[in-house]
Amino acid sequence: MNLLGAWAIYRFEMARFGRTLGQSVITPVITTALYFIVFGGAIGSRIDAIDGVSYGAFIVPGLVMLTLLTQSLSNASFGIYFPKFSGTIYEILSAPVSVIELLLGYVGAAATKSMLIGGIILVTSTFFVDLQIAHPAMMLAFLVLTSVAFSLFGFIIGIWAKGFEQLSLVPALVVTPLTFLGGAFYTIDMLPEPWRTVSLFNPVVYLVSGFRWSFFGQGDVAIGISLGATLGFLALCVGVVLWMFRTGYRLKP
Amino acid sequence: MQPILSVRGVSKTYASGHQALKSVDLDIAPGEIFALLGPNGAGKTTLISTICGLVTPSTGTIRVAGHDALRDFRAARRTIGLVPQELSTDAFETVLATVRFSRGLFGYARDDAYIERVLRDLSLWEKRDANIMELSGGMKRRVLIAKALAHEPRLLFLDEPSAGVDVSLRRDMWKLVHRLREGGTTIILTTHYIEEAEEMADRVGVINKGELLLVEEKTALMRKLGKREMVIALVEPMHSVPPDLSEWHLALEDDGHKLRYVFDAQAERTGIPSLLRKLADMGIGFKDLDTSKSSLEDIFVDLVADRSGAAA
User: Fold this and answer.
1) What is the CATH number of the domain that holds B254?
2) Do B101 and A97 lie within an 8 Å CB cutoff?
3) Among A43, A113, A151, B44, which residue has the least CB neighbours within 10 Å?
């Protein structure tokens, strides 16, 4: 195992984030603040508390999840796609590193950045709403698992993408709809059938539900199912990545 | 002595069906400079990419310093430095950061003194804090070399090192190659500039259409295939070569103004003094003599033409 190699990639990626720190932190913070003002303040004041939780507080876990997903996807997919695009991937492919070091470096760095931003948003939210975290350890576990799982997913997209268009296609066409329909702003109980049942096929529902459970002690589905679904998605992504590297898919002719 | 690189029966057929390599065998001795010569599309880069791990071979085995390049890829790749043909560099990193990154990526602990030496050798030290995208093409090429040397490779690949490089950098690079060799580094370079192979290499391999046509000591190759010729510019033009001169097999050129004599540069007797005496005896005046030796280029063109002729 070449830990120095993994560390070199990790530092390279973190330095890349560091160069764009301003925009990568300020943008999500402003976006989230806007959500709080509109949904929490303006509209939320006219919405009844959901299961005893004020609407402003209710949307916090969903908003953090929304940021984690989009940040993880874009960071990780860009991180591996750009060397492919610029040609510098030659060095990575000729280096004494295997898929394990690459994942530690690229996915580790992308997940780290997402978690940092997720944390910042959580802190931002305390300026708008009164927040209690019922299960901090579980909250942290969901934060880490989601960041890692979606960074892996982003890594897969980055390897798959043949152009910048494809790179933004999956996040725009698949992930954004899934996130908005994933119960970030409502409980799926509020949906009429058949949408309620359809929602159960949306993996994001389980992430948001589990994350919300760690805050308020209640979610749309049981915490065990949430955790299982998250771990299942993680395992699926690991499987796809391993297959890609065994076959050299779009990396090695 | 164990070869530092041993290639056995390596072939590569791409998914498109294009066969880029046809069962290549090659052994490289430690410390030598080997030039892989061939026209564009001959398979030079595919062969290098296969050895370095960028391309998966369809068949065959590759051993680097005794390590199997697939099964024991970590040990094998730590030994290898690769300078690619394309100027593929990061844009926003500094020179120093990108070279340090390369060292770490290959699993070597940070060594600022060594990196400084590499950068100074390549005249990059003054530019160490510059962003790579601000550098000229020639400087970027130096950065790629510095990155490849960052992990002290024992086997260095230079893929078309003088593509798009000015004369001064090319001279610098040749000097660097000779310096590296003195330090014990084995160097394999690909080129289609014969001059480069002639200048640098100990041995030359000629590759065309995925086949390694020959591998030979450069001097032996020159000796074996090297011909010299002399062109004699006549004072008075001739209609035909006089029968008295038939033993030299002369060719008449330029409307009878020039005689061309081809001879073997390595032969005991070149036949030149006797030819000149004979011309004087016959009263044939000449105003100029010009001799030249055939370069690797001529040899190479002959060889590739022969093979394609034989195959047809």
Assistant:
1) 3.30.70
2) no
3) A43
